[in-house]
TrEMBL record:
Residues 64-507 form the Peptidase S1 domain. Belongs to the peptidase S1 family. CLIP subfamily. Keywords: Disulfide bond, Glycoprotein, Hydrolase, Protease, Serine protease, Signal. This is Peptidase S1 domain-containing protein. PROSITE patterns: TRYPSIN_DOM, TRYPSIN_HIS, TRYPSIN_SER. Gene3D superfamilies: Trypsin-like serine proteases. GO terms for biological process: proteolysis. Transmembrane segments: none annotated. GO terms for molecular function: serine-type endopeptidase activity. It comes from the Eukaryota. It comes from Heliothis virescens (Tobacco budworm moth). Pfam families: Trypsin.
Length: 510
């Protein structure tokens, strides 16, 4: 049960608001399960503070332009996905979201690559990429089942969503806990957050520390103009299944390597976790040319050709500190800021894996990510998810790595189309929740807030700063024209649209 500091210096329990939906709708089961997870997690009681930020997932006050380092356990539902037969040799790339003890929500394109096998592992509870090689085995899961959305047909960008079932359940804790899924059509016009270990900007390396980026909703008419029909997006921007988030004044965006991670918001009915409203998807063109986006003069970037190929092996020595001021609008997250974040790995073993896309833990068996994160042309399918890390350079024993058992793209996801860019990754074993690894909730409504945070494959998540720090994943980072320039906006797979499919895969486990 969450606690807060009382006037007499003791810790008092906080009663969760078990708000019923107005009518029985798809997602009620997911919402109730999310509250159940929350009620079982013991959160720290800090002297002189309530359980609000910075101790349970959000940072109050102003933020620097762009992204910042997440804090340890701030996004406890985040999962890093790995590709490869052996964890020690796996490549980690996409992200995902733990949405229950057994399911990870991610992008459909994160479930496999052209050269590697399916996504195999999920690592939970990590803050840094460098944590993967030393992550505790209890925070690593394999995926036993990968369920892509039935309409996901790569390379189409539509329906880019998938569910990954873990081989063993994750025991929810402060460090690893599921996010809730946003259900319904209405999303408040508030700030959302995208999280991931993707590129720090144009021609920059992948972030070592998990990044969180605040984003705001971009009007549909603007996105329809900027994202006209294309070879892989024949209908252009589709506001029924996709969301458009960015920032029209400050260079903030998701970038290569963030696929599959959540777009998430916080909710005042629950504490210290997130509602997932979207999944980070991908871009449209040869992003090796440029990775920056300007609504006034857009270029195309962050497609899987870029996000999955330009990555950092876990065996490489890397520190993201020198690039702190060069992020694509992001700021460093702190440990436990986003405990639902997952870093996805591609390769034969975690030690040699390429860690690229992001994802969101949505339960103890599934990670939510983007469909385009399912595989890489060079490294093959997602094999691993790394959880509970802040930096890519975290000691490997700190990486909570899970094998990916199954990659499940949305059935209508058909790459290179960008529609339905969502996928679920199931881990071979249940994700064990703790302070660094915890699922996010999924946003239930289709009405979106104006501001959010997100990164490719990772979540677009919404936070509410009112002494409550429940985050909801509203979207999955799908694609964008470029990242890191003022006036940018990205496309996010709308999680609420895919709730029937997600619940059909995760069943009672969500």
């Amino acid at each position: 049960m969450p606690t807060k500091r009382t006037g007499n210096g003791t810790c008092a329990k906080i009663k969760l608001k078990r708000r019923k939906l107005i009518r029985t709708v798809v997602g009620q089961k997911a919402w109730e399960k999310c509250l159940e997870h929350q009620s079982k997690i013991k959160l720290p009681c800090i002297k002189g503070r309530t359980i609000s930020s910075p101790y349970c997932g959000q940072e109050l006050g102003t933020q620097r332009a762009g992204g910042i380092n997440a804090r340890k356990h701030e996004f406890a539902h985040m999962a890093l996905l790995g590709y490869g037969k052996n964890f020690s040799e796996a490549t980690f790339g996409c992200g995902g979201s733990l949405i229950s003890e057994t399911f990870v929500l991610t992008a459909g394109h994160c479930t496999a690559t052209r050269t590697l096998v399916n996504v195999t592992f999920a690592v939970f509870g990590i803050l840094q990429r460098q944590d993967v090689p030393k992550v505790s085995p209890k925070n690593i899961r394999r995926f036993k089942r990968i369920v892509k959305y039935p309409l996901y047909k790569p390379p189409s960008v539509y329906h880019d969503i998938a569910l990954l079932e873990l081989d063993k359940p994750i025991q929810p804790s402060y460090k690893i806990r599921p996010a809730c899924l946003h259900v319904g059509n209405d999303i408040e016009d508030i700030r959302a957050y995208a999280t991931g270990w993707g590129a720090l900007g144009h021609k920059r390396p992948n972030a070592n520390v998990l990044q969180k980026v605040p984003l705001w909703r971009v009007k549909d008419e603007v996105c329809k103009t900027k994202y006209p029909p294309h070879r892989v997006a024949v209908k252009g921007y589709d506001n029924t299944t996709q969301m458009c988030y960015g920032d029209d004044g400050i260079p903030r965006d998701t970038c290569k390597g963030d696929s599959g991670g959540p777009l998430q918001i916080s909710n005042d009915n629950v504490h210290c976790t997130y509602l997932i409203i979207g999944v980070t998807s991908v871009g449209l063109s040869n992003c090796a040319q440029f990775c920056s986006y300007n609504l006034l003069k857009p270029t195309v970037c962050c497609s899987d050709c870029y996000s999955l190929e330009y990555s950092i092996r876990t065996s490489q020595k890397y520190s993201g500190d020198r690039y702190e001021n060069d992020v694509a609008g992001g700021v460093d997250a702190r440990r436990s800021d986003y405990p639902h974040m997952a870093l996805l790995g591609y390769g034969h073993s975690p030690e040699s894996a390429e860690w690229m896309c992001g994802g969101s833990i949505i339960n103890d068996r599934y990670i939510l990510t983007a469909g385009h994160c399912m595989s890489s042309p060079t490294f093959g399918k997602i094999r691993f998810a790394a959880l509970g890390i802040l930096q890519r350079t975290d000691d490997f024993h700190m990486w909570q790595i899970y094998d990916i058992a199954e990659i499940i793209p949305y059935p209508q996801y058909n790459p290179p189309s960008k529609y339905h860019d969502i996928a679920l990754l199931s881990t071979r074993r249940r994700i064990r929740f703790n302070k660094e690894v915890a699922p996010a909730c999924l946003h239930r409504s289709n009405v979106m807030p104006r501001r959010a945070i997100g990164d490719s494959g990772g979540p677009l998540q919404i936070g509410v700063y009112n002494d409550k720090c429940k985050f909801m994943v509203a979207g999955i980072t799908s694609y964008g024209r470029s990242c890191g320039f003022a006036g940018n906006a990205g496309i996010y797979t709308r999680v609420a649209y895919y709730m029937p499919w997600i619940e059909s895969i995760t069943g009672r486990l969500l």
